[in-house]
Amino acid sequence: MHELLNALGPANLVALIVYILFWLTFELVTDYSPLHAKSMTGLMAEKRRQWMLEMVNRDLRMVDTQIIAGLQQGSAFFASTSIFAIGGCFALLGSTDTVLQIYRDLPMASEFSRALWEVKVLGLALLFAYTFFKFGWSYRIFNYCSILVGAVPSNQDGDRRQMEKSALMAANMNIIGGRHFTAGLRGIFFALAYMGWFIGPKTLLISSFFVLLILIRRQYFSHARAVLID
Question: Each residue of 12-65: pLDDT tens digit?
Fold first, then answer.
């Protein structure tokens, strides 16, 4: 741990802590605070419930299963992308000497050590590992959701309360899958902000703040959100 702190240095350590605080604060506010209900994610969660309750009125549910299949495909795509990104990170580690030579030829404001480069690349690989697990779990949950959709009784079976209970169970499973998918996307956005650290700690702070503003706008002030509340 002492060697890691020495490799980072005070400026990099502060920038990294601020970066993590930006991410965690945004996630806590958007997913777990009262503002969640007003966010794009919260509003879409309510639409997911409406979707499943409306599904109760349909005996033929091919459209619903096709929508869930589309959600699964999106999760699978980003999970595969995360795996490729992890492979790219390890390829960067194998090219450390070449990269450091390039950095020495650039007018960098600060000295760039081999240890610091490896810490940054390994950190980026961990970020994409996190997004992979989020997307992979999201894919699995959407699979569970499709099973729950199939378990919802049809109109011919009668009991309306049981039908709505089963539909809400499927809706809640769908919402959980959507939350993990959103967390994976958020991880990709912050991974892009993290890449600013390869230039320097100040760039990491700027890129993190820029990504934070983008995410705040999309969750609370975007045109897409306005569509949901019109």
Answer: 889 999 999 999 999 999 999 999 999 999 999 999 999 999 888 887 788 888
pLDDT tens-digit readout, 97-133: 777 776 666 665 455 677 788 888 999 999 999 999 9
Domain locations along the chain: 40-184
| Structure tokens, 205 | 């702070």
Q: What secondary structure does DSSP assign to 165-227, as a single string? A: HHHHHHHHHHHHHHHHHHHHHHHHHHHHHHGGGGT-HHHHHHHHHHHHHHHHHHHHT-HHHHH
pTM: 0.90
Return d(Cα 193, Cα 126) in angstroms, integer. 14
